[in-house]
Structures are given as structure tokens and as C-alpha cells.
Amino acid sequence: MKRIDTIDFTRGLVMIIMALDHVRDLTHTTALSEDPTNLDTTTAALFLTRWITHLCAPTFVFLSGASAFISLQNNTNISEARKFLVTRGLWLIVLEFTVITLGLWADIHFRMMVFQVIAAIGLGFIILSLLLKISPKTLGIIGLLIVFGHNLVQGVNFNDDVTLRVIWSFFFRLDVFPVTSNFTFAVLYPFLPWFGIMLTGYAAGKIFMQEESRRRKTLFLTGLGLLVFFVVLRFTNFYGDPSPWKVQKTPLFTLLSFINISKYPPSLLYASLTLGISFLVMAMADGVKNKFVSIISVYGKVPLFYYLLHWYLVHSLMFALMFYQGFTWKDLPFGPFQFGRPVNGSGVELPYVYMIWVFVVIVLYPLCKWYSGYKSAHREKQWLRYI
Prior knowledge:
Elements (H helix, E strand, L loop, with lengths): L4 H23 L16 H8 L4 H17 L5 H28 L6 E4 L1 H13 L6 H14 L12 H10 L3 E6 L2 E5 L3 H13 L8 H25 L14 H8 L9 H18 L5 H11 L1 H22 L9 E2 L2 E2 L10 H28 L10
Parallel strand pairs: 1-3
Antiparallel strand pairs: 2-3, 4-5
């Protein structure tokens, strides 16, 4: 399969940005005590540091769908394609609840498990494998119906029935379930809204098969259309996000309120804004050949490898910071929603968060470049397709 350079670049860019959010989560002074998007307590710099990372998950999920479509173009055997998607999906789910969980919480007792983006993509691949005989156009329409319509049921809850509450959260809304005093399970990425984004990506895979100039125009017009749609619908405060925007204390904060959209689950306006920006990035990068694009694309060629490594590197740096700040192992709390970092007296201010982030990205570059080259040189090793 011929690689699509603009996909590698855009995926690499959002993977780099993603690391900023995780560095902030683990090292910023107020990350454990305050919401960076709370306009009553945040600063513009902190808000935008969190907001820019909204681009990551929807772009990655969308491109996972598009990449699935592209990879299947060279495989007309439905049973083989289905087997690959199921195997890859199961592998991603296993990784989410083992390697990734340990890297995220650094808790060898696994007292916290979270259904997050990797598991959502994995389950999406499994469900997609059952739908391969349906035309991409039809799947795209189904995806759009999900993306446009799931906000209609966001106010529905089943708090009085635990079974229905679990099922509902799995499909539609964020929820946390303290199973025992020592184990908590949380659904942060309700499956159906994210699957809708994956299906639209799958249907949009045809765009990336177009001739370059036509593809660039399609990407640009689609991105522009999504952003216009976002501005018009957001301005009405009528539909598309559970949190309406409001006039704030300054024009800047009013703008921040306008773009302060909901990720958990991804609202219609969230998907429109983030994917609109990503489409424009893809359009601008399409066909561009320079050193910057080449460097960023390295991360996009091995996104799962990068994702796995970055959690362990960021967490190791967090522990080093804690020890530097005078904490000992006995001071580090582990358990549900605890990263092994004390809430009070730990962490660094935002400029240092950015310094740590840049360090993480630079350190991982040679590893990603090596692994990308290794994969290219050993295409006969099928297991490399899964990492």
C-alpha cells in the first residue's frame, strides 16, 4: 500500500500535540486540582494549552477509519480483511488495559482502568469488520447520523438502574464506576460517538485516493465548510454542544467561551471544529516536501509505537521531578485517578511544562525514525503491522 504523506504528517502533528496534554496532566502545578478550561479560574495560556490538544483524538480516530479504507483497497478478500481488523482491534483493546494502563497510572496493582481512545478504536475496528460488505457511502451516512444526532440523547441518564447506567455510559456518556474499594472502572470515550467519527473517516478514505490537486481542493473545501458550519451553529447556542457559550469578562475570554466545546463525549460542534482544522492542515500539507514535513511524518508513520513509549517516558520524567522536589516513594499516591503524584506542592509552571514536552518529543524522534525504517525494511514480518 502506497503511503499517503499528508496522513502521516497530520497524524504525526497531532501525536506530538497530544504529548503536550499528557505532560501537562502529569507535571503542571494545578493539573490535579483545577480544570484548565474553567474560564472562572484558568488563564488564556493554560486554556489554549489544553484546547489545542482537542485536535488529537478526533483526528486520530478519523484517520484510523480512513487508513482502514485505504489498506483494504489492496485486499479484495473480505474474510482476510475482516480477520485483520478483528485481530488489530482485539490487540488494541488488550494494549489499552495492560501496557497503556500501566504507563498511564503507574500502578502495578491496576486499581484503575479506563476505556479510552485506543480501546474505542480497537472496538471500532471489530465492529467495522462486520460491516465491510456495506458500501463506504452508506457507512459514511450512518457515521454522520451518529455524529449529528447523538447530542439529542446526552441528557438521558439511568442513575437508578446500575445495569442500564453501565450500558448507556459505554455507548453515549462519560461515567465512573467504583467497582470495589480498590478498583474503579471509567468510560471516558463512550463508544458510539467516536465510532461515528471513525465511520466518516472510513467513507472519506476515497478522498485520499484522488489525484493530488483534486484531493487538496477537496480537503480544503471540506475543512472550510466544517468551520463555517461550526461558527454558524455555535453562534445560535441552539444545538450541538451541552455547554453554551457566554459573554465573559473580556473579549478574549468570550472567544475562549465560544470555542470551549465538549470532548466527553465528542459533541457535534467539537467534531466540526477539530476536524475542520485538521482538514485544513491536511490540505496545506498535501504535496509539500520539506524537512519539517519529513520530520513530523516520522511520528505519524509509527503512531502506536510513539503512543506507547511516550506514556512511560512522561511518567518517568514526572517521577524524576517529584524526587527533585523532595518527595519520596512513600509520598506518592497510587490508585484511581492518581498518577503517583501528590496533589499539593508538586509540579511546575506552564513554561517548564513546555520545556518537558519538547524534550519528550525530541527524545522519541530517533526511536520512531529507527522503528519506521525497521518496519519498512521488514515488511515480511506481519506482526509489525500491529505496532
